[in-house]
Design the sequence.
């Protein structure tokens, strides 16, 4: 019984993977990589903010928040671009 369930599960995963085109995945991955880079910049900015005081800390935190928002917008744009590729 375990073998049958495993085979059915594997077949389902293969069928699901076939739904995404290679081009769609490439588009989505490109945007995801860009968003990850922005997230890393935001994390670095937050780490620097921890070492600052007063207004400088607030400014650095605001910059980090801005980068995080940009990363999220980039992810959403990537999903939209991937959907556009898929729907062509």
Sequence:
């Amino acid at each position: 019984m375990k073998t049958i369930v495993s085979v059915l599960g594997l077949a389902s995963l293969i069928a699901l993977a076939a739904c995404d085109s290679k081009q769609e995945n490439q588009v989505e991955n490109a945007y995801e990589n860009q968003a990850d880079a922005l997230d890393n910049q935001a994390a670095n900015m937050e780490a620097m903010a921890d070492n600052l005081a007063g207004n400088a800390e607030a400014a650095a935190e605001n910059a980090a928040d801005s980068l995080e928002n940009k990363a999220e917008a980039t992810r959403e744009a990537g999903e939209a671009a991937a959907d556009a590729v898929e729907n062509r």
